[in-house]
Amino acid sequence: MARSTSRAHSALGALVLLCAAPALTRADTPAKPATPAEPPRVYGELRTYIRGWQDTSPEDRATQRFRLPFLQTVYVGSNRVGVKGLSIEALGYGEIESVEPLVGNRGRGDLLMATIAWRGLPNDMLMLKAGRQIVHVGAANNAIIDGFSGRLELPLSFTLEAWGGFTAEPGFDWGTDRWQAGARAAWSPFDVGHLGVSFAQERMFGEPSRELVGIDFAWRQFKWLDTTGYFLIDDLSRRLQEAELYIEGHPTREWQLQAEYRHVDVAARIPKTSIFSVFSNATYDQAGGWIGFFPLNGMLSLFGGASVLVYDADDIGYRARLRARLLLDRRLGNLIGIELGRVGTGTSGYWQTRAYGMWSPTSKLHLTGDVDFGVYDDSARTNGHRWSNVSRLTAAVDLFAGGRLMADVSVLVSPTFSQQWAGMLRFTYDLSGRLPEPLMVP
Amino acid sequence: MKRLVQPRVLLPALALACGLVASTCYVFQKPDAIIFSHKRHLSESAACVDCHGDMTQVVDMVQSRLPPMAKCLECHEDREKACAYCHVTPSAPEPAARNVLGGILFNHKNHAQRTKNDCATCHKRVMEAEEPRYSTRPEMLDECMQCHKSDFRNIECTKCHTNLTELRQKPFDLFSHRGNFLEKHPIVAKGDLVVCSHCHKDNFCTDCHSRMAPMKPSLMRSDEPDRQLIHRGDFLTTHPMDARLDGKQCLTCHRQNFCQDCHTKNGLSARGLTNGLGPHPSGWLVKGSGDFHGPPARRDIGSCATCHERGAESNCIGCHKVGGVGGNPHPPGWESRIDPQRGHACVMCHR
User: Fold this and answer.
1) How distant is the Cα of B169 from the closest Cα of chain A, in angstroms?
2) Is the pLDDT of residue A9 over 80?
3) SS3 per-residue string spanning B230-273
4) CATH number at residue A366
5) Which of A435, B38, B67, B263 is the residue whose CA sits 20 to 30 A from A83?
6) By CB neighbour count within 10 A (0-12 exposed, 13-18 middle, 19+ buried), where does A89 fall?
7) Per-residue pLDDT averaged across B321-347, rounded?
8) Measured between CB atoms, does B159 come within 8 Å of chain A?
9) Which residues, numbered 321 to 340 in chain B, qualify as contacts with chain A under a Cβ-Cβ cut-off of 8 Å?
């Protein structure tokens, strides 16, 4: 019964994707304008991936097998569909994987997002959105729902938001007893900051699995100082689930200073309908500082810092990172960069270094290289092999307006694989005929 | 008595010192700028067009309507010889610098018609401006948004901006993705997701945040190595350490069944206890051993849940139940509002 339901859901997903197909056809042949001032506009992107790599068999890890999945994603949207303020968007994918002759082909697919939204009233004060969507409202964590969300901007910079719907699961595996809803009221004087109060509830098996009350805020009294944070209280266990505070200063455009503090109760994030929610109330605190220097009008970027995670007095973890990037040509996006990172967990840890570069010898050819090297403290957990290396090369060619073909080759040497070669071909087609800019923000 | 300093040494030294002073003065000479108060001129009944001419007829940002000095002298003729009245460095006067805002499409004529020639509708700060600098220029997020919020939200940037890479607007940190923006971006989005939607459509978030996504983001965008993306490098090896360090991060995007599926598929679940690939050390079930599972489980119960979550079939319940060898599962100070006789998790033991 469950399998037939799953099939029905997969069929429904395929149907929705098929419904998007006519829109793609329209993209190639511009539709008749609704009004001369506001012609229809269809945007989107098609991505085709063909990957191949060798893998170990779980039954016998010395045995290699080859995998060759074919993946197609379709993203299409329009914010001028003839009705003022109305917009539609959909993103889905389908994948066929040829694993090995005995297993045969395996297919899967899903609808990642499909929404219809409307903005109206003077200056877009009201926004309503229905469909599969990510909601990230207030202090609560993001959620993917099949439902609705709405936002109303009131005078004096007040905002009301609400959302609700079934919890989206892979393969349209809906359950009428699994849904979530929430609301947020905020005051956000434009450009200065905001103060929001939110409530969210998620239900599983017909009872609350999460119930969260949150406060989020941001304050930018000065252009160069930004204070942002939130508190999230687990209402079911009456515990502080999370608190986070970021203070960021950029006294000049070249300098950036950040300080962060975070308190996390990991167990509180587990749904209360899970037996694991009753085992622990342990928390940890994280504090860190980061400094960035971006001279030469952002062409050179130097950034580094560290944060410490304190679980209890004798159990401390940390992570630290240094990054340097030099932009050689802003227009073409040519750059080189290096990174050095360290993670320590108290019982184990690792070093990670990266070097990468992007180079466009012509405006239509784009090459990248990326070498990643990791060294591990604890050989017992890595089969005695203390390091791993991933090297990757890509080459992309702009074939025509909006169309780009990329080839990717990577080699992995790791505790798991003595040598793994992987290759990927990716073809992207942007319906608007524009190709991605090399860099948006320095 | 012999002279301490010979003239043939003193004179060149003096000449060198004078040269140094002169060159220093030249190098550090204050560059010229124009002294001008919009506030004062406007309070004396001057109209914008008195100085800026037919600005309301200008259709692009190329044509200059900065008044020439001759325009100033129409009123300030008595100051013709007192250069210091308007010039910061009268010894080296320079024409007023015209800082053209590049990459902007703007039609003053159209806007003047809509605002009925009220320049202060957009140039709000001009009434208070004590300097003739571009502080009087409209800020996009303030003045332009009075009318263009719809364009802003529809990401119709090119209506006004021809070159987004040169965009410089405030507040910088809202739109800057430098530094450790990857770690910070949730906190920005929590407050106002609309800010993100100015540039990114929903599919951008979905690439990383959808539990149904078919491919990890760093692979999907492998030709963008400069982007801050998680799961880079040999993540298969490092992920147990990352999860131990900050388990919350995993739970942000992945649900428990994500880990369970992969561990089961790769022989790292219950079968791992016999094939040597299991995630637990040998003393995991031996109380008193340094690797006993109790303390790490209390520290990060989320890690246990990633693999062992099977509802009433979860293997913890066998020992950790009322009267079981594992004893009371609840930590000291544990409390809940859920009715133990009705809660889905509670009734597994309390029935």
Assistant:
1) 10
2) no
3) CCCCCHHHHHHHHHHHCHHHHHHHCCHHHHHHHHHHCCCCCCHH
4) 2.40.160
5) A435
6) buried
7) 75
8) no
9) 329-331, 333-338
pTM value? 0.69
Amino acid identity, position A106: R
Residue of B nearest to A366 (CA): B223
**C-alpha span between A150 and A164 (Å, rounded):** 9
pLDDT score recorded for residue A5: 44
How far does the CA of residue A345 sit from the closest CA of chain B (Å)? 5
Which structural domain, as residue segments, surrounds residue A14?
2-115+220-430
Q: How near does any CA of chain B get to the CA of A124, in Å?
A: 6
| pLDDT band at residue A19 using 50, 70 and 90 as cut-offs | very low
**Do A130 and A118 form a contact (C-beta atoms < 8 A)?**
no
Q: Is A365 helix (H, G, I), strand (E, B) or coil?
A: strand
User: Helices marked H in chain B — which ranges?
Assistant: 7-27, 38-43, 48-52, 69-73, 108-114, 145-153, 172-175, 181-191, 193-197, 202-209, 217-220, 235-245, 247-253, 256-265, 272-275, 294-299, 301-308
Q: Is the dihedral of CA B112, B117, B121, B126 positive or negative?
A: positive
User: How many Å separate Cα B156 from the centre of its chain?
Assistant: 21
- With 0-12 / 13-18 / 19 or more C-beta atoms within 10 angstroms meaning exposed / middle / buried, residue A244 is buried
What residue type is assigned to position A65 of the chain? R
Ranges A173-182, A309-318, B197-206: which has the least confidence: B197-206
In a domain, A107, yes or no: yes
Q: What is the DSSP string of A43-73?
A: EEEEEEEEEEEEEE-SS-TT-EEEEEEEEEE
User: Which residue type does A268 have?
Assistant: A
Task: Name every chain A residue with its beta carbon within 8 A of the beta carbon of B293.
Answer: none
Residue indicated by tokens 């500082």? A289
| Burial class, B53, CB count within 10 angstroms (exposed 0-12 / middle 13-18 / buried 19+) | middle
| DSSP secondary structure code for residue A295 in this structure | T
Structure tokens at A412: 């992995």
